[in-house]
Write a sequence for this structure.
């Protein structure tokens, strides 16, 4: 009797998850259900699985609404009917076609109209739904004659009184209004709850025809769907056999290019992989990816193929990846094996500037009917819950801000806040809106609307109404098309080198971008600011501790810094063994045989699987469970526990002692956190090395590109400092030299207009564009005549020094600008055929104090350019020890003057601590540790220069200063406000620091790791 059920996928309307809805139906003995969420099919596949698990017949449908008004309910007679409804909703969502009050001509869909929207003529597949409370209306003659076309309409939206109130709150959130202002039409009726069928049949007992019609509707509908069928595009060519021929041809062409004609090992590996790829029907997946890469290469774009796909020599030969699996002993089975239940996916990165071009190609090449992004359900989050629910109850903004931004302990508890807590708790994990998956694209064999309606988010590419997990469940595997700024930096640097020096750098040449002597020296010294993935303080410290002087060690470093490895203590142990290879034994021969490269330590996901299989004797299928547990898909300790019993049983059969098996499993289990597969680390390491090579040999071009790609780990100021340390003369923007982005002119770096706070994007682009069209600006007046600016923008440009080509002081330019703008008529801008001579003004001589420019720069771009932060200190003291000498001061107390770059919050068992990164007056970087007891007395006080007192600790070649005391040093007052003492220190607060927060568990100390360094007997 339930033809109209809502789950919480009816966003901000339904209150039941699919699981709860089906479970309650099972409890009440209901044998048939129709899920009809509002304008969406998000939940139908989960619904089918849950119903069949509980012995309930599932039927799929959609409730069609527009602007909150119910038009009709569409119930699919069979699965193809869902496709018909999907296409109609897609036309509405994506193509602007309106939804009609009456249903279109459907072939496999039954339609139920509410009593308030009955069309003049009912088609054969159309019915009228009547609710129990509407039965009294049947005394009307016009309705009596329609009884033969009526069915029972018992909608389900909630199950308890509490959930009804939750529904009302959701409706208030959806309408952005107060609960008290909701209209009756905005909310469901109080009768829309889950109830026993018996009570409904009793209510309709006088109308057996309506009951019979309803039963007939259930009996003629079904939801047949094969979850095992692959629904990706099946063939790239006309057939599977042709796909294999084409893929084989491409693979052998690539084999010759990558390895030459006589590389027997590579040829055998290609043969083996092609056999598996064909058997698992993945030829088309490889060919589509190859096709996408081919287009990218044709466009001159740079890409990185990473993830487990780099384990495949076929993908290497096709140019999808640039990692040789033979060089790094990457085994194909990690990517693809006959035991694997789900297809793998390639992760392909492009520059953030080029990704949209690649996406457009994919949509155009494979057809919009077959391509869409995965969706994702954005859930109500802690802050949004309190803010949204509080708003529905009418709390003022101040209270909403307090609830949303402060911890629960600080909230002022009262009955209203308690009610907000109560319903807020119920909303946790509720979907709030659908959004676009960051990178997952689906390419289907059948039209994609057969499986989902599409929606059009602001980004401009259509999305399906379900997430990646549902896509995988129904046989649609995604292609991950990603973007990152690191690739943009590399790409732009190569172009800039060509422009400035006329040199063509083949950065993909692995002889220079994987093993180069000078780059190796920089790597070992941690001189990697600006380089992809290896510039953070933690990573630079790790590189120095390892004296990382080659690509292979960099691959390991890229993985051991990941949470799974570091959290388990394996990172600390790896550093020890790398530096002291003669001070440990492999605790079992299997570890020596399979993990010799990483000193017997599990560093990569592959290592864990190797130990599970070769030491523990687990099957490949169980190995795949381990793989998924350690990846983004279903990562959890629970997944690992599924194989625990088998592991210990198998170890016993292999003759391992219980103590030995327990230690091996302890190490495996520690990887339940996210860790990298080796191929992923190798891909990251290649890109890191490419960045490093460019930084070493073309530092100015590289740093300009980092700035233009909006940096990485640090703020722009740090990259400008790096450029200056590399010999650049950094200039503030100039209207006759600068562009929207930062530019390099010889050794001069002119900062871009994009860095000026408060300058509109349109104007920032327009200044350079007008100059390119009509020549240099001759004067301030010429600029005002050509560019549509007001006095505030002119002031910003004057203060930053953008008119210094005139030779006039800033004060004089400001007065001139005001005088010009008083009489200037904007309608005459650009129209004057004969320039009137500038009226000459006799201006008084206006003196500027030293460092006024520096404070202008802090105000407009956030940091000084014309001087160092140290120059602005009141004191001339610069410290007694400098960074270059720290290593020789091990265990000694030092006093240093330093400028704060960044600090990272780190949880410890004793409370919060921070790691700081600083530069000294010479511009060299160093790191500090601030423990809870020190921080309680000497906390950080924002950006600026500090006097530090601490003890140097050299840990494996890397010095850190453990801080005992520190004090922020006063800067000179702002000379621009010499006559206004209240404002003399306002701008100082704009000096920034980079702060990163982590909520992970504390890393174990050396004595807590307990990793055996001797052989187990």
């Amino acid at each position: 009797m339930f033809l109209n059920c809502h789950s919480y996928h009816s966003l901000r309307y339904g209150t039941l998850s699919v699981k709860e809805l089906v479970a309650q139906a099972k409890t009440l003995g209901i044998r048939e259900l129709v899920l009809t969420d509002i304008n969406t099919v998000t939940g139908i596949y989960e619904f089918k699985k849950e119903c069949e698990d509980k012995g309930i017949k599932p039927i799929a449908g959609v409730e069609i609404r527009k602007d909150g008004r119910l038009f009709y309910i569409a119930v699919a007679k069979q699965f193809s009917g869902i496709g018909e409804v999907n296409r109609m909703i897609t036309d509405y969502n994506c193509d602007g076609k309106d939804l009609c009050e009456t249903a279109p001509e459907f072939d496999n869909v039954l339609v139920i109209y509410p009593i308030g929207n009955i069309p003049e003529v009912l088609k054969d597949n159309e019915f009228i739904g009547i609710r129990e409370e509407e039965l009294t209306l049947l005394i009307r003659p016009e309705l009596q004659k329609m009884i033969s076309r009526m069915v029972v309409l018992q909608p389900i939206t909630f199950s308890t009184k509490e959930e009804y109130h939750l529904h009302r709150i959701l409706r208030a959130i959806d309408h952005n209004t107060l609960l008290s202002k909701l209209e009756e039409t905005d909310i469901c009726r109080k009768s829309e709850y889950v109830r026993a069928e018996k009570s409904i049949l009793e209510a309709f007992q006088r109308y057996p025809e309506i009951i019979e019609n309803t039963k007939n509707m259930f009996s003629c509908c079904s939801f047949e769907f094969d979850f095992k069928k692959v629904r990706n595009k099946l063939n790239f060519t006309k057939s599977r056999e042709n796909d294999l021929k084409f893929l084989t041809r491409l693979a052998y062409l690539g084999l010759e290019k990558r390895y030459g004609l006589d590389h027997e090992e590579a040829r055998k590996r290609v043969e083996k992989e092609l056999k598996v790829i064909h058997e698992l029907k993945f030829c088309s997946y490889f060919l589509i990816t190859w096709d996408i890469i081919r287009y990218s290469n044709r466009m001159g774009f740079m890409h990185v193929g990473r993830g487990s796909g780099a384990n495949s020599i076929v993908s290497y030969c096709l140019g999808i990846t640039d990692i040789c699996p033979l060089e790094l002993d990457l085994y194909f089975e990690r990517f693809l094996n006959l035991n694997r239940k789900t297809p793998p996916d390639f992760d392909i990165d492009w520059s953030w500037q080029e990704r949209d071009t690649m996406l457009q190609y994919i949509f155009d090449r494979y057809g919009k009917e077959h391509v869409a992004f995965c969706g994702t359900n954005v859930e109500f989050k802690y802050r949004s819950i309190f803010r949204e629910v509080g708003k529905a109850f009418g709390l003022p903004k101040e209270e909403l801000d307090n609830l949303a931004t402060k911890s629960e302990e600080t909230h002022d508890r009262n009955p209203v806040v308690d009610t907000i807590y109560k319903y807020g708790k119920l909303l946790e994990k509720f979907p709030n809106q659908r959004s676009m998956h960051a990178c997952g694209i689906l390419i289907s064999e059948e039209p994609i609307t057969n499986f989902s309606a599409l929606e059009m988010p602001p980004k401009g590419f259509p999305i399906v109404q379900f997430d990646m997990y549902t896509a995988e469940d129904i046989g649609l595997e995604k292609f991950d098309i990603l973007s990152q700024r690191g690739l943009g930096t590399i790409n732009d640097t190569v172009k800039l080198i060509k422009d400035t020096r006329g040199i063509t750098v083949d950065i993909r040449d692995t002889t220079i971008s994987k093993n180069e002597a000078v780059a190796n020296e920089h790597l070992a010294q941690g001189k990697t600011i600006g380089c992809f993935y290896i510039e953070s303080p933690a990573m630079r410290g790790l590189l120095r501790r390892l004296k990382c002087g080659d690509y292979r060690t960099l691959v390991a470093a890229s993985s051991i810094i990941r949470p799974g490895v570091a959290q388990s203590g394996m990172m600390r142990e790896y550093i020890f063994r790398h530096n002291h290879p003669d001070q440990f034994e492999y605790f079992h021969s299997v570890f020596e045989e399979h993990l010799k490269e990483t000193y017997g330590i599990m560093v990569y996901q592959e290592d864990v699987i190797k130990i599970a299989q070769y030491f523990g004797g687990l099957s490949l299928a169980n190995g795949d469970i381990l793989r998924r547990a350690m990846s983004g898909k279903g990562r959890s300790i629970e997944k690992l526990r599924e194989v625990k019993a088998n592991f210990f049983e198998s170890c016993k059969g292999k003759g391992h002692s219980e103590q030995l098996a327990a230690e091996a499993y302890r190490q495996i289990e520690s990887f339940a956190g996210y860790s990298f597969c080796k191929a992923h680390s190798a891909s990251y390491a290649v890109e890191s090395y490419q960045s490093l090579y460019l930084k070493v040999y073309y530092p100015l071009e590289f740093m300009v590109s980092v700035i233009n790609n909006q940096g990485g780990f640090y703020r722009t100021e740090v990259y400008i400092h790096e450029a200056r340390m590399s010999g650049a003369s950094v200039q503030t923007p100039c209207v006759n030299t600068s562009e929207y982005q930062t530019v390099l002119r010889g050794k001069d770096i002119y900062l871009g207009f994009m860095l000026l706070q408060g300058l509109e994007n349109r104007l920032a682009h327009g200044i350079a564009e007008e100059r390119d069209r009509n020549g240099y600006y001759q004067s301030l007046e010429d600029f005002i005549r050509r560019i549509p600016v007001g006095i505030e923008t002119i002031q910003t440009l004057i203060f930053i020094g953008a008119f210094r080509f005139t030779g006039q002081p800033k004060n004089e330019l400001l007065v001139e600008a005001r005088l010009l703008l008083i009489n200037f008529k904007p309608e005459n801008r650009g129209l004057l055929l004969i320039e009137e001579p500038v009226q000459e003004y006799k201006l008084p001589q206006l003196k500027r104090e030293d460092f006024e420019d520096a404070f202008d720069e802090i105000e407009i771009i956030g940091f000084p350019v014309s001087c160092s932060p140290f120059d602005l200190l009141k004191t001339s003291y610069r410290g007694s020890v400098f960074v270059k000498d720290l290593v020789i001061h091990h265990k000694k107390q030092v006093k240093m003057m330093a400028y704060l770059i960044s600090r990272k919050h780190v949880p410890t068992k004793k409370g919060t601590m921070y790691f700081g990164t600083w530069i000294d007056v010479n511009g060299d970087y160093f790191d500090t540790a601030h423990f809870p007891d020190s921080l309680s007395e000497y906390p950080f006080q924002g950006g600026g220069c500090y006097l530090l007192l601490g003890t140097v600790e050299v840990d494996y070649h890397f010095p850190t200063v453990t801080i005992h005391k520190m004090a922020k040093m006063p800067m000179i007052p702002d000379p621009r406000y010499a006559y206004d003492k209240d404002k003399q220190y306002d701008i100082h607060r704009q000096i920034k620091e980079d702060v990163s927060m982590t909520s992970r568990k504390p890393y174990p100390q050396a004595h807590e790791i307990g990793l055996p360094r001797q052989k187990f007997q």
